[in-house]
């Protein structure tokens, strides 16, 4: 006896076809961004190992002038920010915006490939310029000045179709929190990137104000690009995996507008006590502390959404990485507040603690959320499942332990370093002694980056196999059920 499909079955079938068409339309650009980002991530972590070793043993590779600490460290950070972070972020943004808006990428795909190629060429030339001694000595803007217009143009090419998708989206439920964060990142990054580069490269004789603008730019990229992309990803995937709506739409709105209003005022507090008008670092200190409100609200909302579904954290790769990233967001906010306020910031400024903050923001909070997104998105684009559960688990644990060790040791080293610098009894001590006091923490940093590098090598290989279509042929998602075998179990995610 033949049965007629119900309207619900027909709607589900139509919805599946629509999602498949959307995935097909963005497949090439998104995988291109993920794969190139993973290459740069591996390069960045290798450079991080070398830079940490140079802090422990300056004579290591001492005959090679290209591999001095003053060149390795900015190359390591720029590769992490521009090679991995922004590229991977754009891939996540494009896929979520297309899925959430229900819009296919209709045209301009070739232009996206061209923009992606130019982005990677510009990053390559920029990092080579730093290694060859052409650094501008401006934090996160060390690449030679001819690079920034190429990066800005390439970013705008990717941002435009996402803005168009948002404009065409059908929004029956009103405020779509994930797409609002992504749209914000599309506009905020070009604004701060253009403003900082024009001020620092095109306006001469800014003096001390140039340092303040540079610090404003660094914090702007962290809080107005990396943070909204990661939060938008978490707001998409946590309800998706748990099957529960966001716990509170009002908290979601409060978190978004709090970040939008406050984040652009941070940065100048880096130079508290420096040659800047006192109101500049004071405003930065105030807003840096007030940012605890939006990041705390977002963390609370994510926790309430996953409440009662924590068993899925143990089984879903996407939820495990995203959950950890969401947990690290309030911690990032607390560390930033400690660096920003006058009572603690004066002992932590210009120490290893600043590096720890940057790493937990970029590799801890942001990258963990992006890893979770990649583990969900890539199988839907590649048409196959991840080959190895063990590699995913190793990627998670090596990254978790490595980042935790880097951040903790950097904060402790910063406290000790700041205490020594501000101790009146050590006014006549040689600065080399202060460096030697931090040596054990730098050894831990080198080991931690080595562990992270090991996990990222296998992450890159795993991703390359997926992009090549050599993954596991199965309709069952890759889940982390068993700790004793390498065979994924079937379940709905």
From TrEMBL:
Keywords: Electron transport, Membrane, Respiratory chain, Transmembrane, Transmembrane helix, Transport. The chain crosses the membrane at residues 30-53, 79-98, 110-134, 146-166, 178-196, 216-238, 250-267, 279-300, 321-343, 355-378, 398-416, 446-470. The keyword Transmembrane helix applies. This is Membrane protein. PROSITE patterns: COX1 (PS50855). GO terms for molecular function: cytochrome-c oxidase activity; heme binding. It holds the Pfam family COX1. One of its GO terms (cellular component) is membrane. Gene3D superfamilies: Cytochrome c oxidase-like, subunit I domain. It comes from Brevifollis gellanilyticus. The keyword Transmembrane helix applies. One of its GO terms (biological process) is aerobic respiration. Residues 38-415 form the Cytochrome oxidase subunit I profile domain.
């Amino acid at each position: 006896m033949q049965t007629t499909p119900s309207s619900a079955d027909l709607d589900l079938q139509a919805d599946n076809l629509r999602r498949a068409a959307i995935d097909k339309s963005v497949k090439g650009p998104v995988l291109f961004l993920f794969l190139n980002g993973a290459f740069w991530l591996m390069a960045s972590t290798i450079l991080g190992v070398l830079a940490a070793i140079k802090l422990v043993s300056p004579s290591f590779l001492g005959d090679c002038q290209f591999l001095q600490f003053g060149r390795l460290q900015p190359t390591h950070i720029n590769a992490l920010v521009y090679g991995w972070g922004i590229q991977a972020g754009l891939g996540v943004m494009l896929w979520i915006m297309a899925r959430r808006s229900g819009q296919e990428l209709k045209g301009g795909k070739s232009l996206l490939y061209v923009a992606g190629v130019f982005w990677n060429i510009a990053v390559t030339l920029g990092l080579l310029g730093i290694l060859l001694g052409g650094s501008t000595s401006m934090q996160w803007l060390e690449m030679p000045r001819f690079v920034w217009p190429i990066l800005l143009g390439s970013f705008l090419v990717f941002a435009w179709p996402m803005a168009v998708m948002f404009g065409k989206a059908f929004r029956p439920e009103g405020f779509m929190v994930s797409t609002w964060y992504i749209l914000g990142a599309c506009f905020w990054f070009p604004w701060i990137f253009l403003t900082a580069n024009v001020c620092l490269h095109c306006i001469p004789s800014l003096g001390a104000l140039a340092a303040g603008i540079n610090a404003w730019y660094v914090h702007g990229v962290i809080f107005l690009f990396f943070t909204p992309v990661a939060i938008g990803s978490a707001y998409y995937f946590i309800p998706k995996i748990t099957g529960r709506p966001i716990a509170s739409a009002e908290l979601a709105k409060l978190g978004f507008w709090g970040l939008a209003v406050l984040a652009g005022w941070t940065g100048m507090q880096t130079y508290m006590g420096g040659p800047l008008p006192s109101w500049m670092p004071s405003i930065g200190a105030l807003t840096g502390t007030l940012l605890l409100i939006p990041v705390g609200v977002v963390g609370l909302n994510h926790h309430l959404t996953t409440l009662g579904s924590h068993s899925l954290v143990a089984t879903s790769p996407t939820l495990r990485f995203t959950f950890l990233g969401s947990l690290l967001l309030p911690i990032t906010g607390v560390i930033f507040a400690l660096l920003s306020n006058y009572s603690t910031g004066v002992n932590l400024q210009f120490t290893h603690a600043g590096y720890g903050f940057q790493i937990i923001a970029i590799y801890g909070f942001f990258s963990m959320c992006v890893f979770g997104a990649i583990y969900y998105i890539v199988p839907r684009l590649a048409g196959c499942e991840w080959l190895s559960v063990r590699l995913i688990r190793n990627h998670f644990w090596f990254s978790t332990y490595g980042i935790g060790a880097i951040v903790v040791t950097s904060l402790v080293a910063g406290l000790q370093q700041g205490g020594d610098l501000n101790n009146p009894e050590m006014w006549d001590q040689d600065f080399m002694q202060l460096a030697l006091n931090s040596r054990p923490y730098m050894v831990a940093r080198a080991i931690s980056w080595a562990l992270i590098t090991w996990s990222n090598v296998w992450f890159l290989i795993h991703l390359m196999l997926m992009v090549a279509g050599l993954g596991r042929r199965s309709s069952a998602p890759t889940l982390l059920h068993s700790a004793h075998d390498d065979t994924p179990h079937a379940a709905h995610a």
